[in-house]
Design brief:
- The complex is a heterodimer of chains A (718) and B (185).
- Chain A is of the alpha+beta class and 718 residues long.
- Chain A has 16 helices and 36 strands.
- In chain A, the strands form 10 sheets. In chain A, strands 31-30-29-28-27-26-36-35-34-33-32 form an 11-stranded antiparallel beta sheet, sandwiched between helices. In chain A, strands 13, 16, 17, 18, 22 and 25 form a 6-stranded mixed beta sheet that branches.
- In chain A, helix 4 crosses helix 12 and helix 7 packs across helix 8.
- Chain A starts with 12 loop residues before the first helix and ends with a helix.
- In chain B, helix 2 packs antiparallel against helix 8 and helix 3 crosses helix 4.
- Chain B is globular and about 50 Å long.
- The two termini of chain B are 22 Å apart.
- The chains are: A alpha+beta (718), B mainly alpha (185).
- The interface between A and B is large, with 66 and 71 residues.
Chain lengths: 718, 185
């Protein structure tokens, strides 16, 4: 009968077991009445097996991450010629990236497009751009068609889509491009729902100012229409390739000698100590010597033994598009046992699946400086974009980042560094990304690589390298494409936050005016809750789980009340929604009843222990543990009242209201649809952060026309 | 008693599952066995969550590929099922986020198993239909609990790990719910 231990004690086991096990059988049958189609099951199995086999040769954590990225990108590669899926090449490609990932595209490779696959005339002269276009439009340039040019050549040459050329020049598919014809060249972009000027500028690597000027937009850029055509100037697309990210060399031990030349027989010209870093100047020699710039900034070279240093490829974190500083902000660092939590908010461009790729926490533990890095791949909570009455888009999302820290951790000298974020394409959008972002980037970087992409169900897409410079191997080309893919989905900071400076200061007076709208929102939720649940007469049933840092006292028989309990509460309401009588059952975590109390009028009866006394009515609507009352008086008691949307592991939980002063912090979360309270937490503010006092999670909150007989039985019991 | 047996069978599976997952690290192809073990359960969970064969299949693919990819990061020894279904829950939640308005929970409750597919529809007897209606009248959290228990076939410990609650509390809630359903029918 152990399975029934959690049930209310007054139930007769014999009567209950039978219907329950019958019910279980029926539910099992019901839920098992569907199964995956065999064809689907087999297809997926071979897909899973195939991917798993690809992973077999890879063992290092770096490799698994790379594989993660590859799989998330959900792209396999094919030979341009045969169209055969080349699994071996994928492995070679991935492995070849591991020891030394290219921190920049190989600029040395001549940008010769392997034109034989595209145009029949590999000797086509370089295109010339006419200096003064006769049909001058802002952002649009002209080009005179040369002998042998194809539209695809031209679109690749300028990094614009062929569709744009068709549209701008009013071409149709049968048209012949005669030499001497003047074409207008620019990218034409159609505004999609949810686009902002910033997101479009980001997509094409231009500034918002350029976009606004070219298209004569309103300077605040808040009047974009869906399907509106925008000109993306070609010089924006052909921007200069980003400078290679610096690679740093850090010491692995206390002192690392720096020598005048590669070899221990050469003179020591300096040392590298913890906390210092030097710029890497070139490749590691075959004997394992790494050249660094020393003294820093001098341009001179010294050599370190590679085994004693860490080569930090900042390209891992800093490639991609640098993002403005105000796109990420952090707030409210707090310690909770062996975890450090900090709220981080992201003001991102679109509603993509953004993930934190790389973050680092520095903190002090027992006087020692510690670091813990954030294991990437955590989805940033998604919130749909909204547009307010002034047409401004809002897309800020917040999450609490959680770092495991030791027990002696302190927030003195603590800092959070968010290095980069990335957003992989969603299912079915891989090819769109490859063709609209990766190909332009490859073109802008003069890589001479052309790709094509074919969408496929379930795997995302197949990307093929259709042209590459002579002398570049397929693997090298794939590495360049992969780098461009990474760059096109990455936003890099770093965003640094001094957590210590965020700790609440005493004597910091709240802004009373600012909290007025918050109070209004809370009142509205209370009104909604009353409307949803307290339309008496009838019963309100609340089941909550309560956890206390310290035991709430002892029962009349001397037993200590556990720190974690359930309270099963039944309120009978009259037609005005006022409480007539209340039953409260206290249960331990196994469901065992600890005591039952009844409150009618002002008569309090502890039924379990036969105690009767006078007591004032303790709960009245709004049923939120007095949080709303506290909020009402926050302004006059100098407490700060704030509100935010609460997310947990990517899921929206509800609207969180926070009241805080120098000593205590109260948090209450409500469901905005019904006004129902979800949880209520109190914290003690201590110098190190916050310490939990109590936490209440409301598991059931419902209105019933009548209480069930087993509840009514308590009222009629002697 | 049937469920007590199921629970002990779960314990045995768990032991050899840890060995299997360890094997997956050095030999990822072993993951195909994990896949076969969980395919039906993941699919059923997602089907009853989204109410459409095609969507359930898409999401099922995503869950297994995501699990395979994340396997090197899986550290919670002995709680693989809870981990896998956490991925499934997230994928389903994402689906609803992106498809808001297209498939509300209420709407899919009207969808009987295999709608549009004549044979299962005939098989779906009156009893299942009545049960389906009763389930549809439950709250979202209660429906989820039933899905986790009977479609995903998770143990109380696993559900508790997934929902971050005590096993005893999960058990209590489920048996109350079964009791209510039994009375209702």
């Amino acid at each position: 009968m152990s399975l029934l231990a959690g049930q209310a004690g007054n139930m007769d086991d014999k009567d209950q077991t039978k219907p329950i096990s019958e019910m279980e059988d029926r539910l099992s049958r019901y839920f098992r009445s569907v199964s995956p189609r065999p064809a689907f099951a087999e297809r997926l199995e071979s897909q899973v097996e195939g991917r798993a086999r690809l992973m077999e040769t890879i063992e290092t954590p770096a490799a698994s991450r790379l594989w993660g990225n590859l799989l998330r990108g959900a792209v396999s590669w094919v030979w341009a010629a045969g169209g055969v899926v080349l699994l071996v090449a994928v492995i070679v490609f991935a492995v070849s990236l591991l020891p030394q990932r290219p921190s920049a595209p190989p600029q040395a490779v001549a940008p010769q497009v392997a034109t034989q696959t595209i145009a029949p005339t590999p000797t086509a002269p370089p295109p010339t751009v006419e200096p003064q276009p006769p049909l001058a439009l802002p952002g649009v340039i002209t080009y005179t068609v040369q002998e042998g040019d194809t539209l695809l050549d031209i679109s690749n040459e300028f990094g614009v889509s062929a569709a744009s050329l068709f549209e701008l020049n009013q071409l149709s598919t049968g048209d012949v491009l005669n030499p001497g014809r003047v074409l207008l060249i620019a990218e034409v972009y159609r505004v999609a729902p949810g686009d902002t000027c910033a997101s479009i500028a980001f997509k094409f690597g231009i500034t918002v100012e350029t976009l606004v000027q070219t298209n004569n937009l309103n300077p605040t850029c808040n009047n974009l229409r869906s399907d509106q055509k925008l000109i993306i100037p070609v010089q924006g697309i052909q921007s200069t390739p980003p400078t290679p990210a610096p690679v740093y060399v850090l010491p692995k031990q206390d002192v690392v000698n720096l020598r005048a030349a590669p070899g221990t027989t050469y003179a020591v010209v300096g040392t590298l100590s913890p906390g210092e870093k030097l710029l890497k100047k070139g490749d590691v020699t075959g004997e394992g010597w790494v050249p660094v710039e020393y003294p820093p900034g001098s341009g001179e070279t010294a050599w370190a033994w590679v085994e004693l240093v860490i080569v930090l490829d900042a390209g891992d974190a800093q490639h991609g598009v640098p993002a403005p500083a105000d796109w990420v902000r952090a707030d409210n660092p707090r310690l909770d046992g062996d975890k450090l939590l900090v709220d981080v908010c992201f003001n991102l461009l679109d509603d993509g699946d953004w993930m934190i790729r790389d973050a680092l926490l520095r903190y002090e533990q027992d006087g020692e400086q510690e670091e813990v890095s954030y294991d990437g791949g955590i989805l940033i909570s998604l919130r749909p974009f909204t547009t307010d009455s002034e047409g401004v888009h809002h897309g800020e999302r917040c999450d609490a980042l959680e770092f495991p820290v030791g027990a002696g951790a302190s927030l003195d000298n603590a800092a959070l560094i968010v290095r980069s974020l990335d957003a992989y394409p969603r299912e079915g959008q891989d090819c769109e990304l490859y063709m609209s972002r990766v190909q332009p980037l490859l073109t802008a970087r003069d890589t001479g690589i052309l790709i094509s992409c074919e969408s496929q169900p379930h795997t995302g897409g197949v990307v093929s390298v259709t042209a590459k410079p002579d002398g570049m191997t397929l693997e090298q080309a794939q590495a360049v494409v992969y780098q461009a893919f990474q760059d096109s989905i990455t936003l890099s900071g770093p965003w640094e936050f001094d957590l210590t400076a965020m700790l609440p200061e005493s004597g910091n007076l709240p802004d009373l005016e600012a909290q007025q709208p918050v109070l209004t929102a809370l009142r509205e939720l209370n009104r909604l809750r009353a409307q949803t649940y307290f339309q008496g007469p009838g019963w309100v049933h609340v089941l909550d789980r309560e956890m206390y840092a310290e035991s709430g006292g002892v029962l009349p028989d001397g037993r200590e009340i556990p720190k974690e309990i359930y309270l099963d509460q039944w309120y009978e309401l009259d037609e005005k929604g006022m409480i007539i009588r209340t039953l409260t059952r206290m249960l331990d975590m196994s469901g065992e009843e600890l005591q039952v109390a009844i409150l009618e009028e002002d008569k309090f009866t502890n039924q379990t222990y036969g105690e009767v006394r006078q007591q004032e009515v303790f709960y009245l609507p709004p049923f939120d543990f007095g949080f709303s009352d506290l909020a009402e008086s926050a302004a006059i008691t100098n407490k700060k009242l704030t509100q935010q949307s609460l997310y947990f592991e990517g899921d929206y939980v509800g609207e969180q209201f926070i009241i805080e002063d120098d000593e205590t912090r109260w948090e209450s979360v409500y469901d905005p649809a019904t006004g129902r309270q979800v949880s209520f937490t109190t914290w003690k503010v201590i110098p190190e952060g916050l310490q939990l006092i109590s936490s209440v999670v409301i598991e059931t909150f419902e209105t019933l026309p009548a209480a069930p007989p087993e509840v009514m039985a308590y009222f009629s019991a002697p | 008693m049937e469920n007590l047996h199921a629970a002990s069978a779960n314990a045995e599976i768990k032991d050899d599952e840890d060995a299997l997952l360890a094997a997956c690290r050095s030999n990822p192809a072993a993951f195909a066995r994990v896949y076969r073990r969980y395919l039906n359960r993941v699919y059923r969970y997602l089907y009853w969550r989204v109410g459409e064969k095609e969507t359930a299949e898409d999401l099922t693919s995503q869950v297994f590929l995501a699990a395979l990819e994340s396997l090197p990061r899986y550290r919670h020894q002995g709680n693989f099922a809870a981990w896998l279904f956490a991925i499934a829950r997230r994928k389903a939640a994402d689906h609803f986020r992106f498809q808001r308005g297209q498939a509300s929970l209420e709407a899919l409750q009207d969808t009987l198993p295999g709608e549009g597919d004549p044979l299962p529809r005939i098989i779906a007897d009156e009893e299942l239909e009545r049960l389906g209606q009763a389930i549809a009248s439950l709250g979202a959290a209660e429906q989820e609990l039933l899905r986790l228990r009977f479609a995903a076939e998770l143990s109380f410990d696993q559900i508790a790990a997934l929902l971050k609650r005590r096993p005893a509390a999960v058990k209590m809630q489920l048996y109350r719910l079964l009791n209510r359903l039994a009375k209702h029918l």
